[in-house]
Each structure stands twice: as C-alpha cells, then as structure tokens.
Amino acid sequence: MVTVSSRVHAAFPEWDAFAHAVQARRPDAGTWCEGWTVRDVLIHNTGNAEEFARVLQAHIDQHPVPTRSFEEREAPYRAMTDVDLWSAFIERCERLVDTTEAASELPPDEEIEWTGRTVTPGFFVEHMREELVLHRWDMTGDDSASVHALSQPWMTTHTVRDVGKPLMARGIKALHLATGQQVGGRLRCPGTDDVLVTATAEATTIDLVAPEGQATIECDPAVRALFLWGRRPADPSRWHSQAGPEALRQLRALLSGY
Predict the structure, then answer these.
(1) Helix, strand or coil, per DSSP, at residue 185
(2) Do 193 and 211 form a contact (C-beta atoms < 8 A)?
(3) Which end of the chain is less packed: N or C, by CB atoms within 10 Å?
(4) CA nearest 238: which of 257, 221, 252?
C-alpha cells in the first residue's frame, strides 16, 4: 500500500479523514453526491489535485493553460484499477504540494486564470482542502468529524469568496428568471455574518454581510456550508425558516450546487 508523506498531511489537514472514509467503504458504495459512488468521489478528487497542480505550475512557468473540464481530467482515472487509482490519488496530492510550495514565491495577490475567472495562489491548497471536507461528507454524512470540519469559518469564507458564483451558475439556469425578476435569500448562523445571495436573469451575487432583518434560513455553520454546496443535512430539524415555501424553493434551487 502506497503511503502519503508528512508534507501532504501538513498541507491538507483533512486528508486523513477523507482517506479513511474512502478506505472504509467499497468502491461501489453509494454516496450523498447524486449519482456518485465512493470510486467516483475518489476519481473526482484525484482529477482535482492533478488539475490544480497543472494550472498552477503552468502559471509559474509563464505558460498559462486553460482549465480542463471535469470529464476531460477524470477520464484517465476511470480506466484505472482501484489499486492504481489510490496510488494515483496519493501521487497527485504529493505533486500538488510540490507545486504550491513553488508558488509561495509568487505575490499573494497574483491573479491566476481558473475556470473563466481569476484566483490567487492560496486558492489551490484551500480549495483542495474544501473538496476533501465536502466529499468526505458525501461518503459519511453527518458524523462528528464532518460537522466539525464543515463548521470551520474558513469553509464558508472560501465558498463565498472563491466558489460562490460558479456554484450558483447551474441554479440560475434552472430558475428561468424573467428580465427584471430577482430572487435570493439570507442564510444566518448565530454570531456570524449572514451569507446573502441574489440572482437576476443577468447576474448573481454572494456576499458575507452583517445580519439584518429576517433570515431565509437559520442553521448551524455546518448546515450552511452544506446548503451553499447544494447539500442537505440528514436531520432537517437542524435548520429553520419562516420565509415560506416559495422563498425556500427558489433559494434551494439557486443553491443547487454542481
């Protein structure tokens, strides 16, 4: 069995929990991610690690490359055996650590092209960490480790600032809004800023703002992170709302995730 280096553990504190969740289940076991098995989750995160490193290294080398689609980056891994896929996952994570260490020489506000937008060098490690947390939940559901990881403030901040608009792109298409129509809502957790999302036929916005007025949904931080990614906790009593069915339907459709 191929083992991972201490450098990966240091860069991705969530790696162990994700790896243990994968290895504790059959590759063909189902997950909370619609249509995906555990093997699909592992393929996805192997492709993520490779693409993060590929795009970041190309920027370091001053030969930028476009971000490949999920289908393109994941196709080679679907042809692998389970043993080879696991080895590939470890190797791609090691390579990503190498690349992010090399990127430490870049200015922290350097703009790097990623999926039609620009991000900064720190995005790549943080987003890999978020992928490990989220997709571990897809396998385990609401166990204590997932609730703890999803509740960390950086998870919500990263989602809002670096991923929010792409996450809503699918939802806005499904809502078929007319010109001049606007939908949105506030997701509130006690003691934190609200997450405010709005959408029109032309644009979407997502921001952290001071609590004001009535929230569309009130919940704990882990549930809010799940909602932002189009997921739902197993226990629906962990969130509350007085906004009414139509406002909830629109907000949940907008936050339908990938």
Answers:
(1) strand
(2) yes
(3) N
(4) 221
